[in-house]
Amino acid sequence: MLEVTLYTDGAARGNPEGPGGYGAVLQFVDSQGRLHERELSAGYQKTTNNRMELMAVIAGLEALNKPCRVEVISDSQYVTNAFNKGWLDGWQKKNWKGASGPVKNVDLWKRLLAAAAPHELHFTWVKGHAGHPENERCDKLATTAADGRELLVDTGGQ
To answer: What Å distances lie between residue 118 and 52, 60, 112, CA to CA?
Structure first.
């Protein structure tokens, strides 16, 4: 099974409900030892930081065309804790209810679960804006996308 590293970040200007964007970098090493990389990003008119954090992971996973072992490296505890601390399992068992009411971004959580299904995932949290080269690259992709001229419409809820 191919081993892939997926670095992700999301950004929103005027969070919540400002323009936002996501950035993702996919990396893998082929059988000859060559590093392959692919960058993904998009900007949205009105969104939130958490929605963009989720979209970065979704976009990266949806770009994979076969099952892979994927290490997702994110500065979003919202994303990493949902997997690493079992929040997602609990939310699903409670029909998408959390300790403080309905879970936000259910549309994207469901899309993320569908994108994750064929893969073996491991989530690693890194501190944002702390000099991690790939995280800084994803941040630049996300903020550049958020500041772009052609922004998509985020049709989901908060």
So the answer is: 22, 13, 11
CA distance 47 to 98: 21
pTM of the model: 0.93
SS3 state of residue 85? coil
Q: Is 147 a catalytic residue?
A: no
* Catalytic pick among 60, 75, 119, 154: 75
Contacts for 48 with CB less than 8 Å, ≥ 6 apart: 12, 15, 16, 17, 20, 158
To the query of whether residue 9 is one of the catalytic residues in this protein, the response is yes
Q: Is 119 a catalytic residue?
A: no
State which H helix or E strand residue 64 sits in: none
To the query of whether residue 53 is one of the catalytic residues in this protein, the response is yes
Q: Which of 54, 146, 145, 137 is nearest to 103 (CA)?
A: 54
Contact in structure between 28 and 2 (CB atoms under 8 Å) = yes
Convert the pLDDT of each residue in 46-101 to its tens digit: 999 999 999 999 999 999 999 999 999 999 999 999 999 999 999 999 999 988 89
Residue of 14, 129, 147, 157 marked active site: 129
